[in-house]
Amino acid sequence: MTLKRKIQAGLLAIALLAVAAAGSLFWFNWWLRFGTTRIYPLCFDGDGYTEFTEPLTPQANAVFIKIMSSHTKGYVWIKDGQVIAMNWYWLFGEGALAQRTYSLLRELALSHGLDPEMNGFCSDLALMGTPARSSDYSGIAYPSNFTRDTLEPLSFGARAERAGYYTPVGRFYQWLGQLTGDQEK
Predict the structure, then answer these.
(1) Alpha-carbon 88 to chain mean position
(2) How far, in whole angstroms, is CA 76 from its chain's centroid?
(3) What is the CB neighbour count within 10 angstroms for residue 152?
(4) What's the CA gap between 122 and 42, in Å, rounded?
(5) Helix (H, G, I), strand (E, B), or coil: what is residue 8?
(6) pTM above 0.85?
(7) DSSP per-residue string spanning 112-143
(8) Are 16 and 100 in contact (CB under 8 A)?
(9) How far does Cα 173 stand from its chain's mean position?
C-alpha cells in the first residue's frame, strides 16, 4: 500500500469516527431531553446510592407517589402506580431523589412509631416499606458521581433547562422537539 493510500484510509477512518461521535452525542442529548425512565427510591447502601427496586407495600408506595408528585410538575408523573421521570432528572437529580427518599423514610417511621431521624439507608426502607419487613432488598446501582460528572458537560446544560436557561444546543433541541412533537411531557 502506498503512502497516499495509507493517508486516504486514515482520513476516511477519522471522518467515520467523527460522524459516529457526533451521532452518539446527538442521540445522547435526545435521549436525555425526551426519554423517560421509571424512578425508584434512591437510598444509601453503604457503598453508594442504590435505586431500591424491591416492591413496596401499598402504604409506602402511596407515600412515595405523593412525595414525588408534589414538587416535580412537568418532569415527573405517575402512570399505572409507577413514578416516571424525564431522563435528565433521573440522571442528574441525585440530591432531589435522595431527599425525597429521606422524606419517605420519615413518614414511614412516623407511621410505625419509630424515630423519624433515619439515616437514609436502604435497609431502613426495606424494614419499614416492604411486605417482607426484612433487611434484605434488591436494587440497582445508581450511576456514580464520576459517570454523572463526565456526562453532564456532554448534555450542554440539560439540567438548567428546567429553570429556563437554554444553551444554543438546548434551544435547538427545544425547537426540534416542537417540530417532531416530542416535547417534554
Answers:
(1) 6
(2) 11
(3) 16
(4) 8
(5) helix
(6) no
(7) TTS-S----BHHHHHHHHSTT-SS---EEEPP
(8) no
(9) 19
**SS percent in the chain: helix, strand, coil, step 5:** 55, 15, 30
Return the amino acid letter for 44: F
- Which residue type, as a one-letter code, is found at position 31? W
The share of the chain scoring above pLDDT 70, in percent, equals 95
Task: Assess whether pLDDT exceeds 70 at residue 92.
Answer: yes
Nearest CA to 174 among 74, 32, 184, 91? 184
Burial of residue 163 (number of CB atoms within 10 Å: 0-12, 13-18, 19+): exposed
Contact 84, 78 (CB under 8 A): yes
Supply the mean pLDDT for the chain. 85
What's the pLDDT score for residue 128? 85
* Block residue for cell numbers 460528572: 149
Laid out side by side, the sheet with 42-44 consists of: 42-44, 49-52, 139-141
